[in-house]
Amino acid sequence: MALRAAAVHDERSRGPRDDAAAAPPHGRPDPLRGLEALPPGPPGDRADVRRGERRAGAHVARARDACDDRRVSARRPSKDPQDWIDAALAAVEEGGLAAVAVEPLARRLGVTKGSFYHHFADRPALLRAMLAAWEDRFVRAQQVEFDAIPDPRERLHRLLHLAYVDLRPTVIVRLLAAVDDPDVAQALARAAEVRIGMLERTFRQLGLPPARARHRAAATYGAYLGLAQLRTQVPDLFDSPRALRAHVRDLEAALLHDLPDPAAAR
Questions:
Q1: Would the pLDDT of 12 be above 50?
Q2: What residue spans carry the Basic and acidic residues bias annotation (predicted)?
């Protein structure tokens, strides 16, 4: 009798906090409550339970790995397509087209290969994007810049100085070595047409008839490509920047030798 009274007293003295502690979290019923009282099922049921436990364990492991990957990705700087394109151009300059490979570029950028495949379907897609960027920066942008120079003599002078003195010829030489690649061949052909066309317009404005202007423009661009190749093979061809500038002056004089000089006429 005393025990029953004590039990009743304990039930009545338990407050709301005790009830909350005893209840399952979030007020949801405990789905496992009472299962411990069920009789064990047949062996087949126990095998199903074990398979379910293994599947649940694998799911937890995958979730944990995904969380780890997200933490690693969060620590790494994010890269956009332009970063990959710039890295590809740098790789071409250093080692040619063969140097454009996904794993070395990922190491250069400090990211995983997954970043690459987030932006590009495959290596050829990156190569096409890289060639398009090269054309935009070093062909079409220069065309717009130099076509805006009204004086054709000044335009030719600045074109030659940019091509021979300001820019390193490594990338175009590397691309010429990979001309058997169809995408590279097409990019080089487009670049040649733009640059020869720009020179042709300049020589026509300087007084040459159309056919001769075209021939001289092609000869000028050919001289540029030949010297670019020679400079990569013989790095000390010009022993100083002054010697290189002297060569450019001689080339400019040869290109203009039979054309009237408006300054001299004045």
A1: no
A2: 7-20, 45-79
